[in-house]
Amino acid sequence: MKEREEFGSRVAYILALTGSAVGLGNIWRFPYMMGEHGGAAFLITYLFFAAVIAMPIMLCESLIGRRARTGTYDAMKILSPNKGWRLLGGISVFAAFTIASYYSVVGGWSIDYLVRSVFTGFKGLDHYSAAALSYRVFSSPWEPIIFHTLFLLTCSTVIFFGVRKGIEKISKLTMPLLFLLMVIIMVYALFLPGSFNGVKYLLKPDWSQFTPKMMAAALGQSFFSMSLGMGAVLVYSSYSKKSDNLLSSACWTVLFDSGFALIAGFAIMATVFAIGANPGSGPTLVFETLPYIFSQMGLDSPLAARLISIGFFLAVALAALTSEMSMIEVSVSHFIEHRGMSRAKASLLVFVLAWIIGILCCMSFGSLSQFKLFGYTLFDLFNMVSSDVLMTLGALGFSIFVGWVMDKAVVRDELTNGGTMKGNSILFKPLYFIIKWVAPVMILIIFLTNLFL
Ligand code: TRP
Question: Measuring from each residue's beta carbon to the nearest atom of ligand 1, which residues come in under 6 Å?
Answer without folding.
Answer: 20-21, 23-26, 96, 99, 224-225, 227, 230, 232, 323, 326-327, 391
